[in-house]
Design a protein that fits this description.
The chain is mainly α. The protein has 15 helices and no strands.
């Protein structure tokens, strides 16, 4: 049977019956499951990157805390909605993987219909706040991310390993959303932030993919690791994109979002990150991929911190 979920099957999938548990679901379990579906820990990355985009777009003396707060809340709620839709669409596949079989829908704590309605509520409220209290372009970008994530990236994961590139676009747009929330328009600074996030995500995602490749294969996902038994292809791509981060960092100066302190610090961070991806390429292993993953978690907040705090910009 074809298990691929396309955008047109979102509503159909949302009303499919969820297997009945042998024990009743308490309201605390149901609420906990709905909260869990937002992937609130993962969504903290959206808040951080969107916030960085906002702060870099607006002079420190002119920052409006209320507007910043509304922008972050609206963006976060929209991201929550996209995460919920992703889990509604992938519920059948999640049941087959060890690391996801305990999620809210596969475990029976939340029905597909409840998940679908929860996603709609989050997305509508988030986009509505942005449209009414920030600006329509910011709301449009937040909706675009949700559509790309749920309606393009999610089904592509079952078709082609190129899904990683689409996922990277989704993850690179939050700082642009933060920027547009201030300026109401695009500028070079926004695109430099987009480029940094896009390039960073490729080795980050590939390391996750390689570490969990057996689970992804059980779930039927067409990830890079599925056609890369040696791991060298994934690691090679990781090296290429980690290397690209270094020249991209130099672009912060002409974009007006960073100075020489950011360039110097970013280059050091980039070389360290690159060294770990090269080590992964030379000796592909789960341990090496894990080191790249943790290095990526350190690299991004440190670089964004340099950008926001750089006194030379």
């Amino acid at each position: 049977m074809d298990r691929i979920r396309t955008p047109l099957t979102l509503i159909e999938n949302a009303v499919l019956p969820t297997p009945v548990r042998t024990t009743p679901v308490s309201w605390t379990e149901r609420v906990g499951g709905l909260v869990e579906m937002t992937k609130y820990r993962l969504s903290s990355l959206v808040v951080v990157t969107a916030g960085a985009g906002y702060l870099l777009a607006e002079p420190e003396a002119a920052i409006d805390p209320l507007r910043l707060g509304v922008a972050m809340i609206g963006t976060t709620l929209a991201a929550f909605g996209a995460n919920v839709f992703n889990q509604v669409l992938e519920a059948d596949l999640d049941r087959q993987m060890a690391r996801t079989c305990g999620r809210a829908i596969p475990s029976g704590r939340v029905t597909s219909t409840e998940g679908f309605l929860w996603g709609v509520l989050l997305l509508v409220v988030g986009a509505g706040l942005l449209a009414l209290l920030v600006n329509p372009l910011t709301a449009s970008l937040a909706l675009l991310v949700a559509v790309l994530y749920a309606a393009v990236y999610t089904p592509l994961k079952q078709r082609t390993s190129l899904n990683t590139l689409v996922g990277a676009v989704c993850g690179a747009l939050p700082p642009v959303i933060g920027w547009v929330a201030v300026r109401g328009e695009f500028a070079l600074g926004a695109w430099v932030l987009f480029a940094i996030l896009f390039a960073w995500q490729i080795p980050h995602f590939l390391a996750i993919d390689w570490f969990h490749r057996d689970d992804y294969e059980r779930g039927g996902y067409q990830m890079a690791s599925r056609v890369d038994a040696s791991g060298r292809f994934s690691a090679r791509l990781g090296v290429i994109y980690a290397l690209a981060l270094i020249p991209i960092t130099f672009c912060v100066i002409p974009a007006g979002i960073g100075g020489w302190l950011t360039v110097l610090g970013g280059s050091v961070l980039g070389l360290a990150f690159l060294a770990l991806t090269v080590a992964w390429y030379l000796q592909p292993s789960r341990q090496a991929a894990r080191r790249v993953f943790f290095a990526s978690l350190a690299y991004l907040p440190l670089l964004l911190g340099l950008l926001v705090l750089d006194p030379t910009r």
